[in-house]
C-alpha cells in the first residue's frame, strides 16, 4: 500500500514537473479546457436559473368555464352540483355575469349609461382549480365537460408554464448534447497535446521500459499531467463563470434600480462546482490514457 | 542460468545478425563477448536481457523459456538485469541523482531508502560530488560511470555492459573494469562486451563473435 502510494506520488511529482517544464503550453491547455467547458456550463447555469424561476410560479391547472349567455338558472345549478361532485376539483368559484360586468365597469371607470353599452356582454362563468396536473386526467375531464349542455367555452390556464418547462427541458438536452460534443473535442485536443509530449519524453519512456518499468508506471505521469490539465481547466471554467455572473448581476442590479424587480443569477452550488472540476479531470485522464497508450504501443513492437 | 539453443536473430531487412548461437552462462560467471564491430555483440546482449526477441531458437533464463513469457511479465524479468548500454541512454534533462534514482522508482523501492542507495551507487563510481549536476556537463568517462551507477543501484544479480570502456583512456578503463570485477567477486554475474579482452587475472569465459557466428567453444583461462 505504501509502495503503491509512493509510486503514485512519484508519478504525480513527475506530472507536475512536466507541466512546469512546458508551462506556457500548460497555461494554454488550461485556457482551452476552461473556455471550452465554460460554454456548456454557462448554458446549464442559465437553464438552472430559468427552471428555478419557473418552479416558483405557482402552477395549478386552472380552468375557466364560460356558460352560454341565455342559460337558465336551473342549468347553472345543475352544472355547479356536477362540478362539486367531481373529485378532481379543488376549488370552485362562480362568477355571475352581473358581478363580472360591475367589476369590469368599476375597473374601466365607465358607466353603462354614458357609454351606451346597456347590454351585459359577459357570460356567467365558473373558475375552478384542479388538484391534479396529469394531462391525461385533465383532458378527459375537459372532454366530459364539453358534453354538458350550456357550457360555451372552456379555457385552460397555466398551460404556458408547462410549455416553458418543456422548452427548458429541450434546451437542457441541447446543452447536454453540445456538452458531450465539446468534451469529445477536448479529449481529442488534450490527447494530441499529450501525444506530442510523449515524443518529448520518448527517451525517458524507452529507457524506463528497458530497465523494467511496467506500462502502468510509464503511463502514470502522463495521466497525472492529464488530470492536472483537467483540474486547471476546471478552475478556469469556474473563474469564467464567476466573471460572467458578476457582470450579469451588476447590469441586472442597475436595471433593477431603474425599473424595480429582482433578477439575480444564482451561481453553481459547491457540489456542482466540484462536479465541473471532476468532469474536466476525467476528460484529461481519458485523453492522457489514450495518448500514453499509443506512445507505448509504438515501442511494444519488440517485446 | 542462461542457455541459448540454436538462436538466430535477424533485424527486419538485414542479414542475420546472429546465427545458430548456442551457449550457456552460469550464475556468478565473468563473461566477455568479443568480436569486431558489427559482429553482433550488442545484439547478443540484447537477447540475453530480453530487449530483443530471437527470430528463432530458444533462450532459457532461470528455467523459463523466454519465448513463452507474457508481455506483462517482461518488466519484472528486465529488473533482474543491470544494463549499461553502448550509448549510455542517460536522461539529459535529469540530474545525475535523478538518473540513478529512476530504477529505484521503477522497482518501487521504499522512498526512505532511495537517497541512501543512490548516494552509495554514485560513491561507488566516484561521482558523489556530482549528484546535482546534469549529465550533459559530465565528461565521457563520467557519463559512462553514471550509467554504471544506474545499473548497479537496484542491486541486480546480473550486470550487462555493452563496451563500457570504449572511448576511455587506459587509466579510466582499468578503473571501470575494476568496478565490474568487484561486483563479480561478490557473486554478481557480469557480462561485458568489448573489442578485446582486457588484462585480468580473474577467471572468465569468452564468447568470440565474427559476423554473427560464435567462433569456438568458449576458452577457459
Ligand atoms: N536495430 C537494428 N536494426 C537493424 N539492424 C541492426 C540493428 N541493430 C544491429 N543491427 C545490425 O546487426 C548487426 C550486428 O550489430 P551489433 O550492434 O550487434 O554489432 P556489435 O558487435 O555490437 O558492433 P559494435 O562493436 O560496432 O557495437 C550489424 O550488421 C547491424 O547493422
Ligand atoms: Mg555494439
Describe this structure in words.
- The complex is a heterodimer of chains A (303) and B (221).
- Helices cover 73% and strands 9% of the residues of chain A.
- Chain A contains ten helices and four strands.
- Chain A has helices at residues 2-21, 23-56, 73-85, 97-108, 112-115, 135-147, 159-200, 202-210, 215-259, 270-299, and strands at residues 62-67, 89-95, 125-130, 151-157.
- A four-stranded antiparallel β-sheet of chain A has the order 2-3-1-4.
- The longest helix of chain A has 45 residues, at 215-259.
- The mean pLDDT of chain A is 84.
- Chain B is an alpha/beta fold and 221 residues long.
- In chain B, helix 3 crosses helix 4 (111-124) and helix 3 runs parallel beside helix 5 (140-152).
- The mean pLDDT of chain B is 90.
- Magnesium ion (MG) is lined by residues 41-42, 86, 162-163 of chain B.
- Residues 11, 14, 17, 35, 37-43, 86 of chain B line the site of adenosine-5'-triphosphate (ATP).
State the main characteristics.
heterodimer, A: 303 residues, alpha+beta, Alpha-Beta Plaits, 2 domains, four-stranded antiparallel β-sheet, 10 helices, 4 strands, 73% helix, 9% strand, B: 221 residues, alpha/beta, six-stranded mixed β-sheet, 6 helices, 25% strand, globular, binds adenosine-5'-triphosphate, binds magnesium ion
The total count of helices of chain A amounts to: 10
Number of domains of chain A: 2
**Mind describing the biggest β-sheet of chain A?**
4 strands, antiparallel
Please tally the β strands of chain B and state the result.
10
Helix/strand-derived category of chain A reads alpha+beta
The number of strands of chain A is 4
Bound small-molecule species: adenosine-5'-triphosphate, magnesium ion
Shape estimate of chain A: elongated
- The poorly predicted ranges of chain A are none
Number of helices of chain B: 6
Strands side by side in the biggest sheet of chain B: 6-7-8-3-9-10
Amino acid at each position: 500500500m505504501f509502495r503503491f502510494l509512493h509510486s503514485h506520488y512519484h508519478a504525480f511529482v513527475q506530472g507536475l514537473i512536466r507541466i512546469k517544464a512546458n508551462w506556457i503550453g500548460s497555461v494554454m491547455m488550461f485556457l482551452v479546457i476552461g473556455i471550452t467547458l465554460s460554454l456548456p456550463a454557462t448554458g446549464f447555469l442559465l437553464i438552472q436559473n430559468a427552471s428555478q424561476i419557473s418552479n416558483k410560479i405557482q402552477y395549478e391547472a386552472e380552468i375557466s368555464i364560460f356558460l352560454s349567455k341565455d342559460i337558465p338558472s336551473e342549468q347553472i345549478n345543475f352544472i355547479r352540483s356536477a362540478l362539486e361532485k367531481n373529485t378532481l376539483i379543488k376549488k370552485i368559484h362562480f362568477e355571475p355575469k352581473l358581478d363580472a360586468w360591475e367589476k369590469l365597469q368599476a375597473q374601466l371607470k365607465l358607466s353603462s349609461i354614458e357609454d351606451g353599452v346597456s347590454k351585459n356582454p359577459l357570460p356567467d362563468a365558473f373558475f375552478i382549480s384542479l388538484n391534479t396536473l396529469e394531462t391525461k386526467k385533465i383532458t378527459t375531464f375537459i372532454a366530459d365537460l364539453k358534453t354538458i349542455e350550456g357550457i360555451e367555452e372552456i379555457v385552460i390556464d397555466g398551460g404556458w408554464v408547462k410549455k416553458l418547462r418543456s422548452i427548458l427541458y429541450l434546451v437542457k438536452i441541447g446543452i447536454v448534447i453540445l456538452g458531450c460534443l465539446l468534451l469529445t473535442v477536448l479529449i481529442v485536443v488534450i490527447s494530441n497535446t499529450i501525444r506530442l509530449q510523449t515524443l518529448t519524453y520518448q527517451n525517458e519512456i524507452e529507457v524506463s521500459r528497458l530497465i523494467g518499468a511496467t506500462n502502468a508506471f510509464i503511463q502514470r505521469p502522463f495521466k497525472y499531467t492529464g488530470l492536472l490539465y483537467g483540474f486547471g481547466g476546471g478552475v478556469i471554467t469556474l473563474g469564467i463563470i464567476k466573471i460572467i455572473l458578476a457582470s450579469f448581476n451588476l447590469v441586472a442590479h442597475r436595471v433593477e434600480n431603474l425599473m424595480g424587480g429582482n433578477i439575480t443569477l444564482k451561481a453553481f452550488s459547491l457540489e456542482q462546482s466540484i462536479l465541473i472540476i471532476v468532469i474536466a479531470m476525467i476528460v484529461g485522464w481519458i485523453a492522457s490514457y489514450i495518448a500514453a497508450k499509443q506512445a507505448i504501443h509504438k515501442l511494444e513492437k519488440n517485446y | 542460468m542462461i542457455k541459448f539453443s540454436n538462436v538466430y536473430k535477424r533485424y527486419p531487412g538485414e542479414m542475420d545478425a546472429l546465427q545458430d548461437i548456442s551457449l550457456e552462462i552460469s550464475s556468478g560467471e565473468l563473461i566477455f563477448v568479443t568480436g569486431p564491430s558489427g559482429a553482433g555483440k550488442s545484439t547478443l546482449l540484447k537477447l540475453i536481457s530480453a530487449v530483443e526477441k530471437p527470430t528463432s531458437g530458444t533462450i532459457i533464463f532461470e528455467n523459463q523459456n523466454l519465448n513463452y513469457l507474457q508481455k506483462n511479465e517482461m518488466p519484472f524479468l528486465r529488473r533482474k538485469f543491470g544494463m549499461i548500454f553502448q550509448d549510455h541512454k542517460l536522461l539529459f534533462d535529469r540530474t545525475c541523482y535523478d538518473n540513478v534514482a529512476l530504477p529505484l522508482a521503477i522497482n518501487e523501492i521504499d522512498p526512505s531508502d532511495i537517497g541512501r542507495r543512490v548516494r552509495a551507487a554514485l560513491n561507488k563510481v566516484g561521482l558523489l560530488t556530482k549528484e546535482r549536476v546534469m549529465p550533459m556537463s559530465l565528461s565521457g568517462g563520467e557519463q559512462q560511470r553514471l550509467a554504471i551507477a544506474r545499473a548497479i543501484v537496484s542491486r541486480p544479480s546480473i550486470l550487462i555492459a555493452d563496451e563500457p570502456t570504449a572511448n576511455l583512456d587506459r587509466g579510466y578503463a582499468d578503473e571501470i573494469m575494476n568496478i565490474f570485477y568487484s561486483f563479480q567477486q561478490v557473486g554478481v554475474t557480469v557480462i561485458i562486451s568489448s573489442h578485446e579482452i582486457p588484462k585480468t587475472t580473474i577467471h572468465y569465459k569468452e564468447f568470440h563473435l565474427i559476423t554473427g557466428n560464435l567462433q569456438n567453444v568458449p576458452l577457459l583461462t
